[in-house]
Amino acid sequence: MYQKTIDIWALTLDQTRQLRRGQWVSGGGNMGRFWGVKPSGTVVVAWYHNARNSGDYNGYNRNLLNYAKG
User: Fold this and answer.
1) Is the pLDDT assigned to residue 52 strictly greater than 90?
2) Is the pLDDT of residue 1 over 80?
3) Taking the CB of residue 24, how many other CB atoms lie within 10 A of it?
4) pLDDT above 90 (res 53)
5) What is the rounded CA–CA span in Å between residue 40 and residue 22?
6) Which residues 6+ apart lie within 8 Å of 28 measured at CB?
7) What is the pLDDT of residues 11-28, one digit of tens each?
8) Phi and psi at residue 16, to the nearest 5°
9) What is the Cα–Cα distance from 58 to 40, expressed in whole angstroms?
10) Beta pairing, strands 24-27 & 6-7
């Protein structure tokens, strides 16, 4: 269902749009979960360390997923 971790910075925007939500990605030495691309072209990723440091890992991911869908 998912691929191994993908370097999201090496992808074009069209390739990024084809990723599955929840796919693990890397960029600049960080790892995170890909949640989508907004119509404006903004790529939404929940970076792992930001999520862990938020104090609410699941809530942080849920909020970014909702942001990506909206």
Assistant:
1) yes
2) no
3) 16
4) yes
5) 20
6) 9
7) 999 999 999 999 999 999
8) -65, -40
9) 25
10) parallel
